UniProtKB/TrEMBL annotation:
Keywords: Oxidoreductase, Pyridoxal phosphate. This is glycine dehydrogenase (aminomethyl-transferring). The glycine cleavage system catalyzes the degradation of glycine. The P protein binds the alpha-amino group of glycine through its pyridoxal phosphate cofactor; CO(2) is released and the remaining methylamine moiety is then transferred to the lipoamide cofactor of the H protein. Residues 774-895 form the Glycine dehydrogenase C-terminal domain. It comes from the Bacteria. GO terms for cellular component: cytosol; glycine cleavage complex. Its cofactor is pyridoxal 5'-phosphate. One of its GO terms (molecular function) is glycine binding. The modification N6-(pyridoxal phosphate)lysine is found at residue 703. The gene is gcvP. It catalyses: N(6)-[(R)-lipoyl]-L-lysyl-[glycine-cleavage complex H protein] + glycine + H(+) = N(6)-[(R)-S(8)-aminomethyldihydrolipoyl]-L-lysyl-[glycine-cleavage complex H protein] + CO2.
Length: 952
């Protein structure tokens, strides 16, 4: 068989000849194995890659699968899922992703392989679509602003709760009043979040309960419609609460909001929910775009990312992430949330669904869903067996049935999953429901089908008066040509992995293979409701079990939870496990969490969410924990020490040697060690972190294990832990883990179940040896680049071994002094050369952190190095005085084409020098659509939605 047909040879960029050249350049020995022995310290190195568990039912054992074999196995998993139609509701509804959205976006790397839009100039396309999402959510909710997505509906509710807590001026108000008719998982996620922060969740069944609790409450939460489907008019209750100083959150269904009075008009200050039913597959729970909308006064305290409108240097309208000063990477333990990776791609898909259907189309879909529910209610009444629980509903009909279990069984026999709780049966209609479906379900429940009614009216007081989504973007792109060209035009503005390498330190931008992405479009794989009976989820659960076993074998831990939807949520869940373990041992007061100053901003932000008190630690020269400082601070904390959070290899990209000793010190002091696993791409297959001391760790599947970044999400942040912490992993009311029904951190038990197929395919196609080769190559590529660039740039951190791990940090401080050139200018100048910048100013200001990962060929790596070396030469010219400090290709970068056409006479550098600084750019040039984007202007003139007449 010719070599190139192995998947690993497609995943790993450099071929044998390129590897040899890289090894020679760094003095790495004759083979990748020799190099690994040199670069990875013996103290952590595994002699051979840990074997992967054999694949159940596969005759050939654990060998790496080829693409065709992997596809066959994935189809086997998909086929073992059930094909029933889920009408269970609970925040998850079948929907139809239009073919145009699927083919042009979900299956298009221009959209899914992009990074979070921190570099606004190369992100105008995805920022525009996220702005359309915000516009849509804010308008549907009748509130001033919305953010660019949260992780899911349940956690969005928890974020809203904490937003109201933070902004409440009376610290004595500690109660959050919660509508008892809310989805159970939403209530449980609120409880999990409330407990460590001293907040009490009080369930309210009626208006009187809300009134009775108002004096102690800082906020109230309503479900609109309720979990039972009931549509209550909460207007008066909300108004009275507001008079008592208690603002309200409404958890709303965005499809219903096309027809209903928006939460803002009902008096709610905040609205949350999920955009899932806007064309996103059920996916066994996700990924789905959670949302939050709010009154303008909350903007500076709101969680997550907000896209805002600003202008570029030439005054052109330009988009960028607004109010970044609220975020964890700046505010750390005082951040408004720990959200880093959110749900950008699902949010963009939902916006595209709305653009595709247009406002009229969406209204028609919503009206039909309601009509179907009304038809079902009529049939159930006519049968005389069922007693409807409420007459006012949007899509969900709940009723008492003399033999509820029998009705559910009869519906299942007819191919439908419906919800039952005691004697009450609930059935939710959705976009896919047909009259034929309703007829069969009605029969199963003892109803008599009467045909669809001609019309169905919502309660008069709750009917939306002002039509939703009057914006041009939701009416001008209904023809498929217009829609296709809109998406092409937007995608063309951006740099994603389909254009060039994205060497973002700490973010591990590697190949998202087409073969691994295939299951995401397969209805048998992505169509499962997270709370369907277990037999419908057989394939899903078998795949997640197999992936879990593989992750445990490559990390050396004992137990896994897939619930957290991003690394940051993994941190939160892992720290809660540590907290639970301490509490069980009677150590309630252990709340001090030591976090190195070099840690990622999510670490301290997560610690605060878990009710811990952050104490900052010094780092040593290699970015490891300063052991003397650790000893001192652990001693100072004494019996209050809860945990140490550390990143290994350090965020400076060095295999520092303090790990084992740091863990020993903390364990002896009675604490636990949380390891941030974002840098696992330096360890998989060469070291087992679970055997080196840490007790619990998150894994960013969207970094190390190839789930695409999606322009800022989805992510998946499973946690792995040692045996003693396993009983403290999150439980879930919908699918108890080890009997645990509480402690949920996400809406769904598997987090985003459908995504797990991507990481599964990656691991199975690489095999154990392939994973080790990937890590070795990633580390070699980083050392190669460090060697090439180190000849002209200074390193921010010196490694005592002389080797870096999978990333390294350049120090650009001196150029500020010598040439007035900042790291930001360098980042923008890379855009002129067609590249996304490395990570800027993390873990230290004025630095660039570079991580090539293993999927880039040497040719591409060399091209990137050439760009940075060219920039170095330009800096030299400025330093030498050949170009003025305020007028040179760096200071003016990036250069949009339109700016080169006029006014160049008398400039110190030519238009050609501006646009074509390297020869290969003449072949393939990326043109930034806007110049340098003004952050300050946008924050001063905050605008986070499109005007009705604006185009994107
Ligand atoms: C990416 C990252 C995180 C946060 O992970 P998300 O999945 O974005 O929430 C935490 N720590 C480090 C070091 C990271 O690089």
């Amino acid at each position: 068989m010719p070599e190139r047909t192995r998947y690993r040879d497609r995943h790993i960029g450099p071929d044998a000849a390129e590897l040899a050249r890289m090894l020679a350049k760094v003095g790495g020995g004759a083979s990748l194995e020799e190099f690994i022995a040199k670069a990875v310290p013996a103290a952590i190195r595994a002699a051979a890659p840990p074997a992967l568990p054999p694949l159940a039912g596969a005759p050939e054992g654990a060998g790496a699968l080829g693409e065709e074999r992997a596809r066959a196995e994935l189809e086997r998993f998909a086929a073992r899922n059930g094909a029933h139609r889920p009408m269970l509701g609970l925040g998850f509804y079948a929907s139809v992703m239009p073919a145009a959205v699927r083919r042009l976006m979900l299956e298009n790397p221009a959209w899914y392989s992009a990074y979070t839009p921190y570099q606004s100039e190369i992100s105008q396309g995805r920022l525009a679509l996220l702005l359309a999402f915000q516009t849509m959510i804010a308008d549907l909710c009748g509130l001033d602003m919305a953010n660019a997505s949260l992780l899911d509906e349940a956690s969005a509710g928890a974020e809203a709760m904490m937003l109201l807590r933070r902004t409440c001026k009376d610290d004595g108000r500690r109660v959050f009043l919660v509508d008892a008719d809310s989805h159970p998982q939403n209530i449980d996620v609120l409880r999990t979040r409330a407990a460590p922060c001293g907040v009490e969740i009080r369930l309210c069944a009626a208006a009187e309960d809300f009134a009775a609790g108002a004096a102690d409450a800082f906020g109230a939460y309503f479900s609109y419609p309720g979990s039972s489907g009931r549509l209550a008019d909460w207007r008066e209750t909300v108004a009275r609460l507001r008079e008592d100083g208690v603002p309200a959150v409404m958890c709303a269904d965005p499809l219903a909001l096309l027809l209903l009075v928006p939460p803002g008009e009902l008096g709610a200050a905040v609205a949350v929910g999920s955009a899932q039913r806007f064309g996103l597959p059920l996916g066994a729970g996700g990924p789905h775009a959670g949302f939050i909308a709010f009154e303008a006064g909350y903007a500076r305290q709101a969680p997550g990312r907000i896209v805002g409108v600003s202008k570029d240097r030439q005054g052109r309208m330009a988009f960028r992430l607004a109010l970044q000063t609220r975020e964890q990477h700046i505010r750390r333990d005082r951040a408004t949330s720990n959200i880093c990776t959110a749900q950008a791609l699902p949010a963009m898909l939902a916006a595209a669904y709305a653009i595709h259907h247009g406002a009229d189309g969406l209204r028609a879909i919503a009206a039909r869903v309601h009509l179907h529910a009304a038809g079902l209610a009529t049939a159930l009444r006519a049968g005389g067996k069922c007693q409807l629980r409420h007459e006012e509903f949007f899509d969900t009909v709940s009723f008492e049935h003399p033999d509820a279990a029998g009705a559910v069984a009869a519906a299942a026999a007819a191919g439908y999953d419906i919800r039952v709780a005691g004697e009450v049966v609930s059935i939710s209609c959705d976009e896919t429901t047909t009259e034929a479906d309703l007829e069969k379900i009605a029969a199963a429940c003892g109803g008599e089908w009467q045909g669809l009614p001609a019309t169905a009216d919502l309660p008069a007081a709750l009917r939306r008066a002002k039509p939703a989504l009057p914006h041009r973007v939701f009416s001008q792109n209904a023809s498929e040509h217009a829609f296709m060209r809109l998406l092409r035009r937007l995608a063309h503005k951006d740099i994603a992995l389909d254009r060039s390498m994205i060497p973002l330190g700490s973010c591990t931008m590697k190949l998202n293979a087409a073969a691994a992405m295939e299951p995401l479009s397969d209805a048998r794989w992505n169509g499962q409701h997270p709370f369907a009976p277990a037999e419908r989820l057989r394939g899903m659960n078998e795949l997640s079990d197999d992936l879990g076993a593989m992750l445990l074998s490559v990390t050396g831990f004992d137990a896994v939870s897939f619930q957290p939807n991003a690394g940051s949520q993994g941190e939160y869940a892992g720290l809660l496990a540590i907290r639970g373990w301490h509490r069980e041992r009677g150590d309630e007061e252990r709340r001090v969490c030591l976090v190195p100053a070099s840690a990622h901003g999510t670490n301290p932000a997560s610690a605060v969410m878990a009710g811990m008190e952050v104490v900052s630690l010094e780092s040593d020269a290699e970015g490891g924990v300063d052991l003397d400082d650790l000893r001192a601070k652990a001693a100072a904390a004494g019996g209050r020490l809860a945990a140490l959070m550390l990143t290994y290899p350090s965020t400076c990209g060095i295999y520092n040697d303090s790990l084992a000793e740091a863990c020993r010190i903390v364990h002896e002091a009675g604490g636990q060690v949380y390891m941030d696993g974002a840098n696992l791409n330096a360890l998989v297959g060469v070291a087992l972190p679970g055997e080196l001391g840490p007790d619990v760790m998150h894994i960013n599947l969207h970094k190390t294990f190839c789930i695409p970044h999606g322009g800022g999400g989805p992510g998946a942040g499973p946690i792995v832990c040692k045996k003693h912490l396993a009983p403290h992993l999150p439980g879930h009311p919908g699918a108890p883990e080890g009997g645990r029904r509480d402690g949920a951190v996400s809406a769904a038990p598997l987090g985003s179940g459908m995504l797990l197929a991507v990481s599964w395919a990656y691991m199975r196609m690489m095999g154990a040896a392939g994973l080790r080769a990937a890590t070795g190559t990633a580390v070699l590529a980083a050392n190669y680049m460090a060697k090439v660039l180190g000849e002209r740039y200074g390193m921010a951190y010196a490694s005592s071994s002389g080797w870096c791990a999978h990333e390294f940090v350049l120090d650009l401080r001196e150029f500020k002094k010598s040439a007035g050139v900042t790291v930001e200018m360098v980042a923008k100048r890379l855009i002129d050369m067609g590249f996304h910048a490395p990570t800027v100013s993390f873990p230290r200001p004025d630095t660039l952190m570079i991580e090539p990962a293993e999927s880039e060929s040497l040719a591409e790596i060399d091209r990137f190095c050439e760009a940075l070396l060219r920039i170095r030469a330009e800096i030299e010219k400025v330093a030498a005085g050949a170009w003025p400090q305020d007028d040179n290709p760096l200071a003016n970068a990036p250069h949009p084409a339109a700016d080169l056409l006029e006014g160049w006479e008398g400039r110190p550098y030519s238009a050609a020098e501006a646009a074509y600084p390297l020869p290969w750019l003449k072949e393939d040039k990326y043109w930034p659509p806007v110049g340098f984007v003004d952050q300050v202007f946008g924050d001063r003139n905050l605008r986070c939605a499109l005007a009705p007449d604006e185009e994107i």
